Amino acid sequence: MKPNRRGRLSRSAEFERVYRQGRSSANRHLVLYTFPNPAVQRPRLGLSVSRKVGGAVERNRVKRLLREAFDQAQEGLSGGHDLVVVARPEVKDLAEREGLAGVDAALSELLDKSGLRSSASA
């Protein structure tokens, strides 16, 4: 199933609102910003992967893995939130070492920390 693009943040104003008014939690690999948005049924994801992570190939791989991990985690998430995931440079090594499993674990840790995941799916 191809992910629908409506489940993503795309405008810089949307990112700004999440950064400025949202809450954040972080681990060694990622920073997760969350902001409640009652206008959406399912959580929307925005990604920020800077050049500090690596060249275009590495950045695109990290983004693909993050989207895949988010798609897997989305079932257990409470709706009505905008999320922005900021990749730290260490995530490149994690992606090379552990692939999707490592990125998924790092993202899951932050989703649990932020309280977005219902306890039944954790």
Any descriptors?
122 residues, alpha+beta, Ribosomal Protein S5, domain 2, four-stranded mixed sheet, 3 helices, 43% helix, 20% strand
Task: Please provide a brief summary of the model.
The protein is an alpha+beta fold. The chain contains three helices and four strands; from the N terminus they run αβββαβα. The longest helix has 25 residues, at 90-114.
Describe the protein:
The chain has helices at 12-21, 56-73, 90-114; strands at residues 23-26, 30-36, 44-49, 81-87. It is of the alpha+beta class and 122 residues long. The chain has one domain (12-111): Ribosomal Protein S5, domain 2, CATH 3.30.230. Helix content is 43%, strand content 20%. The chain is built from three helices and four strands; from the N terminus they run αβββαβα. The chain is globular and about 35 Å long. The model has no long low-confidence stretch (mean pLDDT 91). The chain has a four-stranded mixed sheet with strand order 1-2-4-3, with helices on both faces. β1 and β2 form a beta hairpin.
